Amino acid sequence: MAPRKPTAAAAKHLAAVADGGPKARQRAVWGLGDYHKFATESIWGFGPELVAACGISAGQRVLDVAAGSGNVAIRAAEAGAQVVASDLTPANFEAGRREARARGVELEWVEADAEALPFGDGEFDVVTSAVGAIFARRHQVVADELLRVCRPGGTIGMIAIVPSGLVVDLFKLMERSVRAALDAPMSALLWGHEDHVRELFGDRVQSLELSRKGFVLDRFGDPAEFRDYFKANHPLGVALYRDLADDPAGVAALDREFLAAVTRGMRGSVEGPRDHDAEALLIVARKRGQDPSCPS
Ligand SMILES: C[S@@+](CC[C@H](N)C(=O)[O-])C[C@H]1O[C@@H](n2cnc3c(N)ncnc32)[C@H](O)[C@@H]1O
Fold first, then answer.
1. CATH number assigned to the domain comprising residue 50
2. Whose CA is nearest to atom 22 of ligand 1?
3. What separation in angstroms does the CA of 248 have from each of 228, 229, 284, 293?
4. CA-to-CA distance for 53 and 284, rounded, in angstroms?
5. On the CB side of 124, how many CA atoms lie within 13 Å of its CA?
6. What is the distance in A from the centroid of ligand 1 to the CA of 68?
7. pLDDT tens track for 67-87
8. Cα dihedral: 32, 33, 37, 42 (round 10)
9. Residue 172 CA, ligand 1 centroid: distance in Å
10. Which of 74, 91, 131, 247 could bridge 31 with an S-S bond, Cβ 3.0-4.6 Å?
11. Is residue 233 one of the residues assigned to a domain?
12. 123, part of any domain
């Protein structure tokens, strides 16, 4: 694939990263732990689900925003699309490249902020983001960018997290401990409210389908295993404990608090049941405007 020409948005992004401000801190946090391990062992089902919901097919130009290690992007490439995987955090691209190679697909990986995408207006048939763009702080700017780079009549597909139960407790813990690094993690959960999403896209979409789907993280034998796995692998889990490296009492207190939250999330029993239910909001929007592939 030919390298992309540098754009003003790309230059602005690199400057924001270089100045060590919030974007640089967010980028550093999402590169901690082993995101690819976590993704493949937990939310790897989101990729094919979003690809199917958006009807991604061979020959389409697809942009996956906040792609991580390629959960959606790689699956879109497997469906035959020409795919760009973009993310604020290039640290996870190498794992994505390996995964793509192992599956025999090729895609382009571009470092990019969801709030300033370095792509042209209407460049993509489908724009996706699974539990990714929701983490950028300015929701309206993100929605505007997703719409801008999608062609008229094209599709925008997202997966957000519905704020309930364990999810809210975990985000509260992060809000307190990694606030400076993540800017405002709790606000990511606003994307799980249907009214918020309707307002963000407004009348620039001709249709907006919103559906809730349960998902289960069922690989953990008990709440302590869940906590220890999250703490060892998930970027935000690693970030939670990072500042407490020289504070064993602080680690023990956080361990207890984390365990209490997970235990509540597993419906109140330390011994089980072993799974924890959460809900995702599947968002599929069609951008208003003439679809150039349809005769008028
Ligand atoms: C939970 S991961 C989801 C990754 C992937 N979509 C998946 O389904 O596995 C969140 C991702 O959002 C990215 N992210 C956070 N803020 C971002 C921003 N402002 N612009 C682009 N990506 C961002 C992180 O770097 C991280 O890769």
1. 3.40.50.150
2. 66
3. 16, 19, 46, 61
4. 7
5. 30
6. 5
7. 999 999 999 999 999 999 999
8. -90
9. 19
10. 91
11. no
12. yes
Classify 178 as helix, strand or coil.
coil
- Joined together, the tokens standing for residue 257 give 């608090």
Centre of ligand 1 to C-alpha 248, Å, is: 30
pLDDT confidence of 165, banded at 50, 70, 90? confident
Residue with tokens 């997966």: 159
**What is the distance in angstroms between the CA of the first residue and the CA of the last residue of the chain?**
33
**Amino acid (1-letter code) at residue 199:** E
Structural domain boundaries, residue 105: 9-162+181-218+274-287
* Nearest-atom index, ligand 1, CA of 67: 6
Domain membership of residue 261 (yes or no) is: no
- Ligand 1 pocket test target in 35, 129, 135, 238 with most atoms within 8 Å of CB: 135
Contacts of 71 (CB under 8 A, 6+ apart): 39, 43, 44, 46, 47, 130
**Does 268 have pLDDT greater than 50?**
no
To test the pocket of ligand 1, the residue of 41, 88, 111, 149 to mutate (highest count of ligand atoms within 8 Å of its CB) is 88
Does residue 87's CB lie within 6 angstroms of at least one atom of ligand 1?
A: yes
Q: Is residue 293 part of a domain?
A: no
Residue 285, pLDDT above cutoff 90? yes
Give the torsion through C-alpha atoms of 268, 38, 127, 4, to 10 deg: 160
Per-range mean pLDDT, top range of 4-13, 126-135, 158-167, 275-284 = 126-135
Q: At what angle do helices 22-30 and 8-18 cross, to 10 degrees?
A: 80
Contact assessment for residue 129 and residue 65, using Cβ atoms and an 8 Å cutoff: yes
Pocket residue to mutate for ligand 1, from 25, 38, 74, 89, most atoms within 8 A of Cβ:
89
For the chain, strand residue ranges (E) read: 61-65, 82-87, 108-111, 124-130, 150-161, 205-216, 277-287
